[in-house]
Write a structure and sequence with these properties.
alpha+beta
Length: 145
């Protein structure tokens, strides 16, 4: 199975940040995790506020935790709050149940990792994540309905 190399992770981040700049988004923070939830790379634009690493990580970690983009985790938080409370507790507080965590897949649909972005609206964070993932030659799955 393919994996997210450091080079590919940096490509994801570079393209996501470029997309954010092109679209006039607020300063973004981007984390890339491998399939096991381990940090592969992280960057935070100048002017991004504190706790952005934790939020970006939590969005990506949440996506990996349930095998679907964090938009689905956010939907579950509304529809099945006890499930998400348990998920957050089981993860030691790492899961952030809002859009902006996007799964990275290969063309066979296998999960290779996830990207979490924070800094602008959750929808815009997700747009930047998808752009980064696709720029690296992977398939993005944000859990859109």
């Amino acid at each position: 199975m393919a994996q997210i190399t450091l080079s590919k992770a940096n490509t994801i981040i570079k393209a996501a940040l470029a997309t954010g700049s092109e679209l006039g988004m607020r300063p973004l923070s981007v984390t890339v995790l491998d399939a096991g939830g381990h940090l592969k790379a992280f960057q935070k634009q100048d002017g991004a506020s504190m706790l952005r690493f934790e939020i970006a990580f939590g969005k990506a970690f949440g996506a990996l935790s349930i095998g679907a983009g964090s938009r689905t985790v956010e939907k579950f938080a509304k529809e099945r709050p006890h499930f998400v409370e348990g998920l957050v507790a089981a993860s030691g507080g790492h899961v952030i149940p809002v859009a902006g965590g996007v799964l990275v897949k290969n063309t066979k649909g296998e999960i290779l990792g996830a990207v979490g972005i924070t800094g602008d609206s959750s929808d815009n964070d997700e747009i930047a994540a998808v752009a980064g993932i696709e720029a690296a030659g992977f398939v993005a799955d944000g859990g859109q309905s």
